[in-house]
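Handout, section 4.2: multi-component inputs.
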Amino acid sequence: MPEQKIPRIDGERLWHSLMEMAKIGATEKGGNCRLALTDLDRDGRNLFVQWCRDAGCSIKVDKMGNIFARRDGRNNDLPPVMTGSHLDTQPTGGRFDGVYGVLAGLEVIRSLNDLGYETEHPVEVSVWTNEEGSRFAPAMVASGVFAGAFDLEYGLSRADADGTTIGEELERIGYAGTEAVGGRDIHAFFEVHIEQGPILEIEGQTIGVVTDAQGLRWFDLTVFGLESHAGPTPMAERKDAMAGATRMADFIYKVAHDNAPLGCATIGSMSVFPNSRNVIPGRVDMTIDMRHPDLSTLDKMETSMRAGIDKVAGDIGLTTTLDRIFCYDPIQFDEGCIAAVRDAAEFCGFSKRDIVSGAGHDSCYISRVAPTSMIFVPCIDGISHNEIEDAKPEWISAGGNVLFHAILGKAGLVA
Amino acid sequence: MPEQKIPRIDGERLWHSLMEMAKIGATEKGGNCRLALTDLDRDGRNLFVQWCRDAGCSIKVDKMGNIFARRDGRNNDLPPVMTGSHLDTQPTGGRFDGVYGVLAGLEVIRSLNDLGYETEHPVEVSVWTNEEGSRFAPAMVASGVFAGAFDLEYGLSRADADGTTIGEELERIGYAGTEAVGGRDIHAFFEVHIEQGPILEIEGQTIGVVTDAQGLRWFDLTVFGLESHAGPTPMAERKDAMAGATRMADFIYKVAHDNAPLGCATIGSMSVFPNSRNVIPGRVDMTIDMRHPDLSTLDKMETSMRAGIDKVAGDIGLTTTLDRIFCYDPIQFDEGCIAAVRDAAEFCGFSKRDIVSGAGHDSCYISRVAPTSMIFVPCIDGISHNEIEDAKPEWISAGGNVLFHAILGKAGLVA
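Output:
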C-alpha cells in the first residue's frame, strides 16, 4: 500500500504541541523542570486539559490526581482503549520524557476528529501523577495506586524533602479529584515513549516494539564511621565513612559491569556528614539503583553487592545499613498489545525491532490490570533525564502514527 | 624540687570554665556547635570578655573581630607575651578544640592575680575569629590577616554558603572592632591545644612540645560527565560523573596511604548533580584536604593525585577542574619558644615528647610575625572535630601549667 494513502496523524501539530508544553518550566539549557505537583506541573496539566476540552473530550480526575480525557466511542458500555504517560519531569529533564506519550495520545484524538472516525470503544488519554519520583518517592506511585500496587492512603501520604505530601499538593493545585482510583476495565493500554537509551539510534531503527521491562531495585545505603579531624589522624587509624562509601561504590559499579550490557547500577545521590572539608566524614548516605531484565540475575547482583559492602565495611571498621526501599520485578507485556504495535509499525512501513525497556514506566504497573504494551522511538545519543534530551520530528511523528494504528486496531473503527 | 611547691594554675577552675563555656551551643551528643559569628559565637565571646573584665583585663577588638584581653606588665612599653586560640567550633565539634587555648590563657591571668605576680611584659589573651573555616573559608582567616597573609578587605569579604560576609556578621553581633589588625610587636606567642590525634595518648605522654606543623593543601575538584537515565543507558555508554568521582577518591586515598603515617588525605564534602536516584550524575563536586610535614613530599603527593585524576577522567570520558584554593607550607616553630615550653614541662615534671602538628592552627600564621610555639595535651582516642571529643581533667590542667610557666619564662616575673 503506498504510504501516502495510510491515514496519519498530524506530526507537525504534535511537534508544535510538544514545544508549547515545553515552555512551561523551560530551563536555560533547553530542557524542562516541571517537578510533580508544583505550580509548573499545574500549569502543564491545565494546558493539557484545555487542549483536550478543545478537542471535545470529557475530563475526569481521580483521587491520586490522575487525569483521564475521554473521547466517546459508539458503544460507551465497552471499556476504553487507553494511552498516556506523565507530564512531570526530572529536575533537569527534557522535553519528551513522559510528555510525548501524553501529547501523542491527544494527537490521536485530534486526528480521529479530523478524519471523522468513530471507534467502537471509547478512547482515553491518561496523565499519571508523579511518575518520575524525583520529588516524591517512589516513582510511578499514582499508576501504582491505580493498579493496586499501593493503597490510596500510602499514595497520598508520600512526602517530599520538605515534608509536604502528595495529598496536600493535589489540594493546593486543584487536582485532588473525586473519582475512585482504578477498579475499572481497560480494554488495552499503550504508551509511546522515547527509548531513553542508544540502541534504536545506533541500529537505525525507527520503532521499538517493547516486549519486556527490566526489573529494578532501589536501595538506601548508609555508611557509618567516626568523625575526626582531617589533620592529625593517621590514615591507618581512621574510620572514614567516605573512604568506605567510595570503595563500596567502586564495587557496586563492578557488579554492574560484570553483568553488562543488560545489567546496570547507578549511584545518583550522595550526602556526607558533617560535610566539612577538614573533618573525616562520620556518615555517608547514598542511593543505589540496580537493574536487570532477568530476575535470577538481579537476585545474584544484589547478593554480590551486599557481600561487597560488608567486606569493605569490615576492612575499614565501618558499619552500614542497606534498605531495599523499592523494587519491581521484570515485566512481560501483553502478547495481543505487542502484536497490535508490531502490526501498526508494519502497516506504516517503519523499520522496527523488539526491545526491552530499561526504565520503569507507568505501563509497568498498568500491565497488572490491563493488557498493555509500549512503543519506543529513538532519542538523540540515547540521552534522557537531561536538559539536552532530544528527538527528531520524524521519529516523534512515527511513534504517533504507530500509536494511532495500534489504538485503532484495539478500539475498532466503525465502518 | 618537690612538686607541691611549684606555683600552679587552678586546674579545677579551668575545667569549670570550659564546662560553662560548653553550655553555649551544647549539642545533644555532648559536643558544641558555635559556628563563627553566629549568635552562639557572640554569646561565647561575651562570656569570655566578661570573665576577662572580672579578672581586671582591658579589652580591645580589632577590625577582624579578634579579641585581646590584656593584663598590664610592669613595663607597658614592652611588647606583650600573648597566648590564645579560638572560640568557634565545627558544626559537630567538641568542648576543647580552640576554647581550651583561650580559657587556659584566662586561667593563667587569674592565677597571676591569685599569686599576686607582676610580670615585666604585659600578658595578653587573644581570641582569633573564624579559625575553623566551617562557615567561612578559608580557615584561620583572621589570624592570617593579623599576620599579613591576607589583606583586611579579603578577610572581611569572605562569605558563607548563604552569601553573608564576615564583615556583615561582625557588625551584626557587635564585634566589628576599631583596632588595626596586626602591625604590632609580640614578644612571644604560645597556644595550648588538644593534640587532635592519638599519638600522645598511645605513648602515655602528657605534653607534646610542638616543633613543626604539617603543610596543608585544599583543593576543589569538579568532575563533569553526562546526565542520563539510570535505566536504559548501558554501563559502557555512560559518562557517569559519580563513577569517576568515586574512583578518583579511591586513588587519592591510595596516594595518602602510600605516604603514611605522616601523609594524609580527606574528602570531607561531596555534592552530586542533579542528585536524583534514577539519573546518572552529570557533575560531582568534592573537596580534598591533603597534608604532609615535608614540602617536597607534599609536592609529590599533589603531582601523583593530579595524574591519577586525569587518568580516571580519560578512561571514562569525563572532564575535570581541580583548583588549589588554599595552602600553607610546613612550619618550623621558634627555637626559643620551643625551649620555653620544653623547660616548663620539665620544671613541672610532666612526661613529654616532641611532636608535629597535623592540624592547622592560628599559631601557624602568628609564627610569621612573632616567635611562636605550641603545647599539645592528649585527647581521648585522638578524636577531635567530633561531639565526643574529650580530655582528662589532669591533661587539661597539665597543659595549663606548662603554658603558665612558659609565659612566665618569657614575660619575666618581677622579683
